[in-house]
Amino acid sequence: MNTNVKATxxxxxxxxxxxxxxxxxxxxxxxxxxMLNEESSWAEFALPPTTLALGEANPHFPVTPGAGGTGVAMxxxxxxxxxxxxxxxxxxxxxxxxxxxxxxxAMIADPxxxxxxxxRRSDGTHGRANPFL
Length: 133
What we know:
Blueprint: E1 11-15, H1 18-28, E2 32-37, E3 42-47, E4 50-56, E5 72-75, H2 79-88, E6 93-99, E7 103-109, E8 115-121
Parallel strand pairs: 1-4, 5-8
Antiparallel strand pairs: 2-3, 3-4, 6-7, 7-8
C-alpha cells in the first residue's frame, strides 16, 4: 500500500486544559496564536514552516496528554538565554544546555509534560533545509 504522504500539515499535542496551555505557548514561548476555538477545544499556533495544534481530549478525539515521548523542537537564537529566561519565569528545565559541534539544545516541558526542545544549529539555519522537498 502506498499512502502518498505529501507533507506535514501540523504537529499536534493533546492538552488537559486549553486555558492553561494557550497562555503558555502564546505568552511564555511567544508563539503567534492563529486560531482558538473554545467550543471544539482546539488552538493553532504559527510554528514555521508548519503549525502547532493543541486540542483537549474529547469523545471525537480520544487521546490523552502527557509525557508520552512525543514533542517538538523549536529553533531559538540563543539556547542558553532562552533557558535562563524561562527559568526566571519559574519553568523547570528537563535537560540543561547541551553543546555539540552541530547544535546546542536544552529541554523544558509544557504544562502537560510534553517535551519541548530549544534548539540552535551551529550553522545558523533553522527549519527544513528546503521546505518544498
